[in-house]
Amino acid sequence: MITPQQDIQQIQEVNTSLRETPSDGTKLQKRTPPILDRNLLTEYRQFMGDRFKDTVNAFFKSTSRLLPALREAAIQARDSVLIEIILELKRSSSRLGAKRLPILCEALQERCYAGLLLDVSQRIADIEGEYKILHQALTEIMNATETNNK
User: Fold this and answer.
1) pLDDT recorded at residue 15
2) Coil, helix or strand at residue 38
3) Considering Cα of 88, then 89, then 94, then 96, what sign does the dihedral take?
4) DSSP string spanning 73-127?
5) Domain extents in the chain
6) Any residues with CB less than 8 A from the CB of 4 and at least 6 apart, and which?
7) Helix, strand, or coil here: 36?
8) Is the pLDDT of residue 32 over 50?
9) Residue 14 pLDDT grade (very low, low, confident, very high; cuts 50, 70, 90)
10) Which residues pair with 98 in a beta bridge?
11) CATH code reported for the domain at 4-149
12) Sign of CA dihedral 26, 93, 4, 50
C-alpha cells in the first residue's frame, strides 16, 4: 500500500519533470500552475482505492472520444455542443486533480460564450497538447503506484 507521503512525492516528481518541457518545447514560466494538484489527487486516490486506475482509464477513454468531437464541433460552429464538450473535459479533468487543462477549457468556454469562435483551433490544439501531458503524468503515477503495491 502506498503511503500519502509516497503519493505526494510521486506527484511532485511527475509535475517537476513534465513542467520542464511543454508540448511546444519551450520553457514554461514559473507562474505556470502544476499539471496536477497533488493534495486533491492524493485525496481522490485514497477515496477511490482500487478503483482509481479504472477511473483514470475511463477518463482516458472518454477524453480520447471528446477531443475529436470538440474539434468537429468547432469546425461546424456548433456552440452548444462545443460548450457541452468543454464542460465535460473541465469537470472530468478537475476531478482527477488536473490544474492546467481546466484552465485552458475555461478560456475556450469564455470565448464560446462571447461568440468568438473564429480562431478556436489554437485553443483546441493547446487543450490537446495539455491532455497529452496530463495523460503522461497520470500514467506515470499509476505505474508508480503499481510498482509500490507489488
Assistant:
1) 47
2) helix
3) positive
4) HHHTT-HHHHHHHHHHHHHHHHHTTBSHHHHHHHHHHHHHHTT--TT-HHHHHHH
5) 4-149
6) 42, 46
7) strand
8) yes
9) very low
10) 36
11) 1.20.120.160
12) negative
Percent of the chain at pLDDT above 70?
Answer: 75
Query: Residue 93: which residues within 8 A CB-CB, separation 6 or more?
Result: 59, 63, 101, 102, 105, 131, 134
Average pLDDT, the chain: 82
> Do 53 and 142 form a contact (C-beta atoms < 8 A)?
yes
4-19 and 38-48 are packed helices; what angle lies between their axes, rounded to 10 degrees? 130
Answer yes or no: pTM beyond 0.90.
no
Cell numbers describing residue 39: 493534495
* Euclidean distance between CA atoms 33 and 15, whole angstroms: 10
Closest CA to 103 of 89, 84, 85: 89
Average pLDDT over residues 82-97: 95
